Amino acid sequence: MAELHARRFTIPARSGVAMAVARGQSVRVVNTHGTQVVDTWAFNRDDLSEFLSMEHTRAHALTVFPTTGSTLYTNRRRPILTFLEDTSGGIHDTLIAACDRYRYEQLGCTEYHENCTDNLAASLKWLGFEASGTPSPLNLFMNIPLTGTGVLSFQPPVSAPGAFVTLRAEMDLVIAFSACPQDLVPVNGIDCRPVDAHFELIP
Q: HSE of 173 in the Cβ direction (CA atoms, 13 Å)?
C-alpha cells in the first residue's frame, strides 16, 4: 500500500540528483528509456566518511554482480543498502570508476565534458553536504562483461524501458544518482546518447 504514495523524481540527462533517505525507506531506480546507466552512491547521513563501498561489498558477496537479496556494505563493513527487486536483467557494474574530466581528456575531449564525478559533488552540495572524495559507484544498468580470462569491455545495457531496481536503506543515508553523461563509448546504448532516468522514494 505504501507504494501508492511513492514520490517520483527525475534524474536529468547528464546530471545528478541527491536525496536524504531514512532507514527502512526504499528507493526504486527506473531506467526510463532502458538505455541509461545510473551511477549510484550512498553515504551515512551523519558521517559522509562512511559510504557504500564496492570493494567491501565484493568481499562480502564474493561476486561482482549484485542480485536480488544482496546486501551492500560500507567502507566500515556495515549494511547500507539491500537489493529488494530487480527487473532489469540483473546486469550492473561494480568495477568501473565514475567518469571524470580526466577520463574525457583521455578520450580526446579538449573542452569541459559533463561527468559523474562532478555530478556527485554538485548534487551533494545542493543538499548542503560535501564528500572528501568520489567513491567507486554502483553503476546500475551498466553492462561490463567479464570474460573468464578477466577481460572487460564496454557494452550497451540489456535492460528494457521501465526496468527498475528497488533498494532499501539500512541506515539513515544520503543517496546520490548521476545519469551518466558518457557519449563516447556505448555504455548508454549503441547510439551513445545519454538520456534521463528517474527514481521513486517509497515510504
A: 29
